[in-house]
Amino acid sequence: MGKIADEYGVATDHATVHMKKLLPASVEVVWEYLTESDKRATWLASGEMGLYVGGQAELCFNFKNLTTETTPERFLPYESNHRQQGHVTLCEPPHLLSYTWNERDGRSSEVRFELQAQGEQTLLILTHSRLPNRNEMVSVASGWHTHLGILEDRLNRQQPRQFWATHARLEAEYQQRIPAAS
């Protein structure tokens, strides 16, 4: 499988992380892994998603289903049945999906997936915007990078990488990669 030059996310401004991942499947298959609860649960989170603008976007995280490792103490509240709600803001099957992320207190960030065919593979372009601070940008970048790696493993039909060990390594790398506010 071909690789893109740099799969690390980048901060495109003080509140946005942008990353690209070349995946070993067609746009239609990747779309299914973004939108169908049972397939999304294998790499991110289960939950119903209304595929229309304004539709509910529920994510139910169960990290115990993604890895055999012990969950680090600071992430224990998210270990199983951690639910967050959002709403679909754009939906153009099978190429574009955007939804609010973790709506709470009238605030939310937004995640956008764009899918582009690259031969028999798919270039997934992820943009997570409206992040409140650098710490959240580091957390989101390392989280997405880890989750997308697991998606790649699933699509390659191989044993997925360990979540928490990968996340810890990437979090340390993103601490160096994402600049502090000036």
TrEMBL record:
InterPro entries: ASHA1/2-like_C (IPR013538), START-like_dom_sf (IPR023393)
Coiled coil: none
Signal peptide feature range: none
Entry-linked Pfam families: AHSA1
Domain Activator of Hsp90 ATPase homologue 1/2-like C-terminal: 25-155
Gene3D superfamilies: 3.30.530.20
Family according to the record: Belongs to the AHA1 family.
Protein name (record): SRPBCC family protein
Native source organism of the sequence: Herminiimonas glaciei
